[in-house]
Task: structure prediction
Amino acid sequence: MAFAWPRLPDVQQLVDYRPKLPLRVYSADHVLLGEFGEERRDFVPIARMPQVMKLAVLATEDDRFYQHSGIDWRGLARAAVANLNRAKSQGASTITMQVARNFYLSSEKTFTRKLFEVLLALKIERELSKAQILELYMNQIYLGQHAYGFSAAAQTYFGKPLSQISLAQAAMLAGLPKAPSASNPFVNLPRAKIRQQYVLGRMRALGWISDTEYAQAKAAPLGLRVESPDRITHAHYIAEMVRQAMFARFGEQAYTRGLSVTTTIISRDQQAAWQALHTGVMHYELRQVWRGPEAYVDPPADGAGWPQTVDDACDDHPDTDGLQCAVVTAVSPRQVQVMRPGGAVLDLSGDSLRQAAALGLGAGAQPNVALRPGAVVHLWKPQQGHWVITQIPRVQSAFVAMNPENGAIQALVGGFDFQQNAFNHVTQAQRQPGSSFKPFIYSAALHKGFMPPTLVNDAPLFFDAAATGGQAWEPKNYDGTYDGPITLKRGMAQSKNMVAIRVLNAIGPKYAQQWSARFGFDPATQPPYLTLALGAGTATPLQMVRAYSVFANGGYLVQPYLIASIADGSGKALASPEPQRAGDERLRTITPRNAFVMNTLLQEVTRTGTAARAQAELKRPDLYGKTGTTNDAVDAWFCGYNPRLAAVAWVGYDTPLKLGARETGGRVALPIWIDFMRTALRGVPVTAYRPPPGVVQMGDAYVYEEFAAGAGIHALDVPTPPPAAPASGGAASKLFPNWN
Result:
């Protein structure tokens, strides 16, 4: 103690404590996306704190607050005795100790930290009054849903000032500090009510409310707000992007001066993006092998102990973003009974067990994967479906949608669950784009005179080590089939690798590498070799959506942006960035006719090609895009657009692994894109691109007008049907190096 006491921080700053105004992040339609800093709406002096709120807090957290000097030795002894009879230990932190922890200490559970907490609590009691300590606690404690302090929580959960809350509402708020993220009423209403009734029971036992008041409060409706803003938007990655940008600009003041940042996010689109990504990943996960429960806990000695056992287990394995914790309580060969925190029981059978049953049930189930009483699992419920036992996915995903006209990001989901993995895959994940890179090769080919009707041989290729400068290479089409001479249009629609490689070989990999810069790619990330035709370079989802927007907006490379405006705490405008806009000829990177013809090729992909599911499900022709599956199905993509909105979906493992047999971009990523567009394009009229000057229709395709008579096409020396091998040295020899 003699060593630790001099090292304690100065607590005088608590005497002069003033709340710091948080950084708030909003969508374009003014939905709160996140808050950072001292996250409270209002600092309420203890003199104005409602008596009912103070009593509820003291009854729950520290009923001997006014009798002890920072450490409740009687409470410590009581907790020690209780811990001898419980698997889960009880704590005995006083309000003063919690103030010490919240303001000065980390949350790590070590003896050293606990010692400092005890000593600091004693020091705080020496230098601050009880009223000051309680005031700090009631304004600082985290209560879930980004709310710090009971005033903020009253607004968050009930939409009213703290001065207007009822006894029932005060008791619910007072029950939150134990598990604010897992047991608040927006996340788990039954569990929140159990905590509320515990608080009311403590108040009655202490004689602070009457039996009548207890009964009335217990039966009174909570009057919760209809929806939690956080549950609407699922915008953690966006809020974090803004936080980083504001910290880079304002430093620590970003968290104290009440900055209000309005983003370009559309809350409806953001919710649709999260739901689509979450559903897509979970459908993929349900096709994976059952890896076993999250953990096992010892079943209670009798059935009456299950609720507490489940609550404790799910405190250690809380709900994730969309998955709910549960504990198996009973098992039969065809049915599993689980209990949720709060005591809700579910009997699951049939399809609810489709992932876990094969390995998790039956006499042959291995101990580490078996579903048995005490198994901690997670449940998922599709929007239209029933609960299923599943597991937290290891696969990751990303989704981003952007207005191609001005670069405004309308939706962004950087991963499956921010709490599990804060790495933003939209902006940070450099992955191979696979076949979704082919459109940029074909755009370069159009500039070289290749047109949609150009015939290219879809036949096997082999390159020896001398040709590659390294190992021999024998690329293949994904499905292993080869169609011989086909049009470039069909080669794009069916994602024929041999066609793309022959086209790239004809125009030159170095030329295509430099052409990719027109779409915002760093040429250094795109290797100047024939593997570029199969997307062997790297790109982030954000780079891909920007690149596809060039096709969507008629040929302009616009800069994506997220922040629309910044204001300070008084509402004074600090910044309002001016976005780039398609139509500014300084931003043009490809010609209007190049963009238009590429649109016709990418529309065919969604009509009859590898993404035909898009037009079939959404029932509209104005959809354009390209699937992408890398070698060994390590990355799955769909990059696509409507004239109003471009969007990219990606699925893959952080440590590159095979997604599995037949897990292609069309099967894994495309459904995410479709589900999003189903909402985002609701009410948007069908729009067709108009042919610009310089293009004419030729059969079922559009070509540059200089090829209108077909002469230009034949000038490529593509024989139909082929006689002997073409003369060496010409374009045709590059198109058909293995022609025979």
About this structure: Confidence is low (pLDDT under 50) at residues 86-91, 714-740. The chain is about 35% helix and 15% strand. The CA atoms of residues 327 and 376 lie 5 Å apart. The radius of gyration is 31 Å.
